[in-house]
Design a protein that fits this description.
The protein is of the alpha/beta class. The protein folds into 2 domains: 73 residues, no CATH class; 188 residues, Rossmann fold, CATH 3.40.50. The protein is built from 14 helices and 9 strands. A 7-stranded mixed beta sheet has the order 6-5-4-3-7-8-9, with helices on both faces. Helix 3 crosses helix 6. The termini are far apart.
Length: 351
């Protein structure tokens, strides 16, 4: 396996940095295989094709009399995270984490204060940070995500995610999970589905908070993964050290590859929001029986953000949803969720 800088980190993750910088209560009824009956299953959704598509799919896959019935042990649904389950604009949350870890890294090794790209990041000048090269960003990622044991890394992420706040809403990043999608996750689980997060972001990063924020246990998170090396610390305790070696780039074609590697079953449903999710939805929809593919379109600049460039929305390199993806969705019977029209509310807070 190559360990060159270009292969060490997710390209989607790094492009996001460059581009961006200038539950539901449910009651199960019946025995094994029965549907969950919920009075108001998706209260944050307006009635329309997307909402009806979700409910129709769950009826088809959980009714033993349906041709689309899926045995409970085979029920799998996959969800992208950034832009699908929580806010990804104007910059991926994990990129913010890496940039904010630079002062800590420099404090541990003061010589880096005079070395690029660390010296530029320390200025806090986002316009200049946005001009950093891919090689520069790889150096930041490697310095902030590797070289420590996995428990130390998890503790660092837990401390940061528990305090860091988004600049627009002044709220914890974990509060920026989309309420309508939280309801979908809960509804799928209430109907016997295992819900997996399949993300281009760092697997170890998301695993820190996935249970608390989404109800998804860490073993059901599939993401871009760096290698680890077994060894012993100063106290002779066995540890796994995070290394700058990419094992899985869980983006685009890497998503179905990661699903096969980590889950071992083709899911019946997949939710995404960008070109990074195209292959996952294609893979899921190609299976036999009832299948559900759904893409979230960010078209609500007032309550969240608006970007495409599908349907004439603004261009973006963070979570791009081009017209070609929109056309494929319409041609292949994927549902496109309009944040503006399909969601009564975006977050648990506010309207």
């Amino acid at each position: 396996m190559s360990t060159t800088a270009s292969n060490r980190v997710s390209r989607r993750f790094l492009l996001g940095a460059l581009a961006a910088l200038p539950a539901l209560a449910a009651t199960l009824v019946g025995a094994r295989g029965a549907r969950a009956e919920i009075a108001d299953p998706l209260p944050s959704w307006n009635d329309g094709p997307a909402r009806q598509g979700i409910l129709g799919f769950l009826r088809a896959t959980t009714d033993p009399a349906s041709k689309g019935f899926v045995p409970p042990e085979e029920r799998i649904a996959t969800f992208d995270q950034d832009g699908t389950l929580w806010v990804e604009h104007p910059i991926y949350t994990q990129v913010v984490y890496c940039l904010e870890r630079v002062p800590v890294v420099v404090k541990a090794d003061p010589r880096l204060a005079e070395v690029e790209p660390f010296s530029t990041v320390l200025t806090g000048d986002f316009e200049q940070i946005g001009k950093l090269s891919m090689h520069d960003l790889e150096a930041i990622v490697v310095a902030t995500l590797t070289g420590m044991d996995v428990e130390t890394y998890a503790a660092q992420v837990k401390a940061w995610i528990g305090e860091a706040r988004d600049h627009r809403w002044k709220r914890l990043y974990t509060e920026l999970a989309y309420q309508p999608m939280q309801e979908v996750l809960a509804l799928f689980r209430a109907n016997g589905f295992k819900t997996f997060i399949v993300t281009g972001g760092g697997q170890d990063f998301v695993r820190v908070y996935s249970q608390r924020v989404y109800g998804v246990p860490p073993e059901q998170v599939v993401g871009s993964a760096l290698g680890t090396k077994f060894g012993y610390d100063a106290a002779s305790r066995p540890v796994l050290i995070k290394e700058p070696k990419l094992l899985l780039n869980d983006d685009k074609a890497g998503k179905p590859e990661g699903i096969h590697f980590a889950i071992g079953r083709r899911p019946q449903a997949a939710f995404g929001n960008s070109t990074g999710d195209r292959e996952m939805l294609e893979y899921v929809k190609a299976g036999a029986g009832a299948r559900l593919g759904m893409l979230v379109l960010h078209d609500d600049a007032s309550r969240e953000y608006a970007y495409g460039p599908a349907l004439g929305l603004p261009e973006t390199r963070v979570g791009s949803f081009p017209q070609a993806l929109y056309d494929e969705a319409k041609r292949d019977d994927w549902f496109v969720v309009s944040m503006k029209n399909d969601w009564k509310r975006i977050f648990a807070f506010g309207d």
